Amino acid sequence: MKGLLTEIRHCSVCKPFLPLGANPIISASPKSKIVLASQAPGKIAHEKSIAWDDPSGRRLRAWLGVNEDTFYNPDNFAVLPLGFCFPGKGKTGDLPPRPECAPLWHQKVIDHFEADPLYILIGNHAQSYYLQDKRSLTKRIQNFEAYLPKYFVLPHPSPVNHFWMNKNKWFESDVIPQLQQEIKQRLQ
Ligand code: SF4
């Protein structure tokens, strides 16, 4: 795994399309028990070279019911976004992850896991890539149990998702307690 992570951190396959250049952000260990598959690092993550060290990350940790030490231990959580580098901004927010990245790297990382991890699919890009079903994000999350035990589907924890959270209050009251139970079991 160490050699593979070094190779990924030197990757520049889609550098011509990356406005701030390549800076792959990934974290994993052969012992990772849970994989956080999300979209791609934002500009802050690119600048700090660390994933989820922002309001989205704080909310994600609250949802998972873990502290920073547990979260940033790769033996617990692997950080495996669909694109490892910040893709730049478009008119309505961050651009989608570079399409080259996940097909090139994800399976190679997954092949190094010693046991089958739980994949937390955060947001539409990760869910569309891994699930290949036609349900909307809301429908998937309403039916989250259908994807277990391999996958747990979540919306993106970004503060810009306030509208979705307010409209779907069942998510925090019904889904989050089950997510926390699942995480607790996996981390035992
Ligand atoms: S996004 Fe992925 S494929 Fe593209 S340069 Fe970064 S690590 Fe390489």
From TrEMBL:
InterPro entries (UniProt xref): HI_0220.2, Uracil-DNA_glycosylase-like, Uracil-DNA_glycosylase-like_sf
Ranges for domain Uracil-DNA glycosylase-like: 25-180
Lineage top rank: taxon: Bacteria
CDD domains referenced in this protein's UniProt entry, alphabetically: UDG_like
Gene3D superfamilies: Uracil-DNA glycosylase-like domain (3.40.470.10)
Protein name: Uracil-DNA glycosylase-like domain-containing protein
Organism: Leeuwenhoekiella blandensis (strain CECT 7118 / CCUG 51940 / KCTC 22103 / MED217) (Flavobacterium sp. (strain MED217))
